[in-house]
Please model this.
Amino acid sequence: MSAIVVENLKKYFNGIKAVDGVSFEVEEGEIFALLGPNGAGKTTTVRLLTCQIKPTEGKASVFGYDIVKEGNKIRKLIGIVPQERALNELLTAEQNLYFYGMLYDLPKRQIKRKIDELLPIMGLEHRRKELVKNFSGGMKQRLSIILALLHEPKLLFLDEPTTGLDPQARRHIWKFIREINDKGTTVFLTTHYMEEADNLCNRVAIIDNGKIIALDKPSNLKRKLEREKIVEIEVDIETDAEKKLLEKLKGIEGIKHLNYSNGILKLFVEDRKGLLLDVIKTLSEKNIKAMATVEPTLEDVFISLTGKRLRD
Model:
């Protein structure tokens, strides 16, 4: 059964197309990611699917229930972890969980059982009596995920779940997402972290300017770039010369896309004899530290499809 079915879904704000005719399905039991830069339409899509706003056009359903007509039924089946945390920082972790459990109208016995089950898994058992205001960002995010799971939802929405967290906290949350998915919870997450989508997800939809431009397994998306070579060059380019030099490189026959960031020049090239020689000539006055052909990443897929970096 499909957990989510979306057909030509659109949402406009004052004429601006935040979501522009997206269509996709999420299978029950999947970890599915909506991957794209800030402002691409990810959060708006989540707000539509969780019945927080109504679409301008199109339709969607969650476990067969219409997002416009049957929102109350959908809300009982889903958990939501929004970008803005809804924790009361003047309460302890345990008090927050009891408070939200009562909002869900859950029996105290069930709330206690979920608290005892989830706090240790998320590494928060020893902080259950501590005020949330003393928690780190990663701890607050883990507690927010527990809140969303108190009523045992079939589908969990995570909107940018690891933004602003350090790598260790990020991986802790990834581990937990895999664990709850293994137990049968379908997961829908939005992210702009390539590594997150690549490591966690069964399938990834890449969204840009409100439109889905690719949808497949991460491995399949990367395989589509195998016909292109990706050349990575470590080179220092002065800021005042960067734009002019990149324009020169774009003019070289066989270079389809390029990107320069943090001292790394990445070229998406066709296999043409003499192409690399032309590149080296163009960079002859620069200090080239290293050059290599690299395997494609999801970031490379995005650049190939849009001509820009994910975080531009």
